[in-house]
Design a protein that fits this description.
Shape of chain A: elongated
Structural class of chain A: alpha+beta
Distance between the termini of chain A: 23 Å
Helix content of chain B: 25-40%
Largest sheet of chain A: 2 strands, antiparallel
Largest interface: A-B, 17 and 25 residues
Radius of gyration of chain B: 18 Å
Strand content of chain B: 15-25%
Order of helices and strands of chain B: HEEEHHEEEHEHEHEHEEEHEHEHH
Number of helices of chain A: 1
Number of strands of chain B: 14
Structural class of chain B: alpha/beta
Number of helices of chain B: 11
Order of helices and strands of chain A: EEH
Largest sheet of chain B: 8 strands, parallel
Oligomer: heterodimer
Number of strands of chain A: 2
Shape of chain B: globular
Helix content of chain A: 10-25%
Strand content of chain A: 15-25%
Chain lengths: 39, 322
């Protein structure tokens, strides 16, 4: 992670509604919204 | 005109000092000081969520440049998107954005709250797309100026107008007549002749150029030897590219008369002063804002005071999270 306040878009995680920034939209996400948690 | 260009910059700097004011004119805009942000390195909407109205009270930049807006929404590149370098950062973000409609409806009204002039950065994959973007953005009264991204190395369109003087000239021929607002061209450093592309921008009617964008780079995953970044290659930024920025700004100042926004690895007032002395009229702070969200204010303060606080010591006093 580069910034921690939503500026760099480096910390994204894939969800059903697209990439979300873990620093400002997480760090806790609804597991059922995540794409490919387990492989 | 080589000496004239450099002397103009020096004269305006002397003027600023003489009247004890850090304010600076740029393409008809009046800015409180010469420090702005590099496109894509500061999300003012997310920052306001994190820092609250303190962000508006102590906004770090004298003008705000948006992240690149494209015609259609973009998800951006698959992660991993970042790789830390010695003295810099390699990124492959891929220009995620809501697209033109999403920007105009959702982002622009929020950005209108900022206490500084708004410069909207746009990128099309064709001249026609650029035209549609410029027309739609320029007619909005919240927008003070536009910056054309002709140089981002992360996007797999095959388009790199910024490295081709003729293509750049042709693009400006199409978009210049669409607006009277200032048009900046963000030049790519990934070319053998940045002065030539700058000259093309000037001849095409650009009001200013901004440089440098990131330098193309790559990292391999140590475990596999495969490309680390989801986008395979990325852009190098940070203090590692400071000397490249100085050399390119200096070369461009020799070639053109229009104002230059200089950027590349700026962390301190001293770094900003160096770019001004090389021929820039404004200086943009980029990756340093990731480390210190108030870096823009700090660099402006250091520049005004004619001193440089060591970048080794993070100066994060500007904001606290709400």
């Amino acid at each position: 992670m580069a910034c921690g306040f939503g500026a760099c878009f480096g910390c994204v995680a894939p969800t059903k509604s697209g990439y979300v920034r873990l620093c400002v939209d997480g760090p806790v996400l609804d597991a059922t919204e995540l794409e490919a948690v387990l492989e | 005109m080589t000496a004239a260009g450099r002397n103009n910059g020096a004269a305006s700097r002397r003027e600023r000092r003489a009247d004890g004011d850090d304010a600076v004119g740029f393409c008809g805009l009046r800015l409180a000081h010469p420090i702005i942000n590099a496109s894509g390195t500061f999300d003012a909407i997310a920052a306001r969520r994190v820092f609250g109205d303190a962000l508006l009270d102590r906004f770090p930049f004298a003008a705000f440049v948006t992240k690149t807006v494209t015609l259609e929404p973009r998800a951006g590149n698959p992660p991993p998107r970042l790789w830390e370098l010695a003295g810099g950062l390699l990124n492959s973000i891929g220009l995620p954005n809501k697209g033109l409609s999403g920007f105009l409806e959702s982002d622009l009204p929020q950005l209108a709250d900022l206490p500084v002039p708004l410069i909207v950065n746009v990128m099309g994959s064709t001249p026609r797309e650029f035209g549609a973007l410029v027309q739609a953005v320029a007619e909005r009264r919240e927008v003070a100026a536009l910056e054309l991204n002709v140089s981002c190395p992360n996007v797999k369109t095959g388009l790199d107008i910024g490295a081709d003087p003729r293509a750049l000239r042709s693009l400006l021929g199409r978009v210049r007549p669409l607006t009277d607002k200032p048009l900046l061209v963000k030049l790519t450093p990934n070319t053998t002749d940045v002065a030539g592309t700058a000259k093309s921008a000037e001849e095409g009617g650009a009001d200013a150029v901004s440089l440098i964008n990131t330098l193309r780079g790559m990292a391999l995953a140590p475990q596999t030897g495969e490309p680390w970044l989801g986008g395979v290659t990325g852009g190098v930024s940070g203090p590692a590219i400071r000397a490249v920025a100085l050399a390119q700004v200096y070369a461009v100042r020799e070639a053109i008369e229009i104002p230059i926004v200089g950027m590349g690895g700026v962390q301190s007032g001293r770094d900003a002063l160096n770019l001004l002395n090389a021929g820039a009229d404004l200086v943009a702070v980029g990756s340093e804002s990731f480390r210190d969200p108030a870096a823009g204010s700090r660099v402006a303060r250091e520049l005004a005071a004619g001193r440089s606080i060591s970048p080794e010591i993070p100066q994060t006093a500007g904001f606290s999270a709400t």
